[in-house]
Amino acid sequence: MKKRPNRWLVFSSLAFQMGILFYGAVRLGSYLDPVNAEKKYYTMASCFLALVVSLVLIIKQSKKL
Fold it and tell me: Are 46 and 28 in contact (CB under 8 A)?
């Protein structure tokens, strides 16, 4: 029988993944906002994209448990 991973370890690693993902999204958005001075929606759009990606990661990880 295959040993199942500990649920606490799986979900705590998801927290770190989400933190790194959102940090990278905010850094990318704040880098791109000054490039286009007319519209400053890059930070918001990249955070929304990071939210969608993190939800997909959570769904994939929870299906494995």
Answer: yes
Give me Rg for the CA atoms of the chain: 16
Enumerate the domain spans of the chain: 1-33
DSSP characters over 1-64: -PPPPPHHHHHHHHHHHHHHHHHHHHHHHHHHTTTSSS---HHHHHHHHHHHHHHHHHHHHHHH
Note the pLDDT tens digit of each residue in 20-60: 999 999 999 888 888 877 777 888 999 999 999 999 988 88
Q: pLDDT by residue (tens digit) across 48-58?
A: 999 999 999 88
Residue 21 near residue 38, CB atoms below 8 Å: no
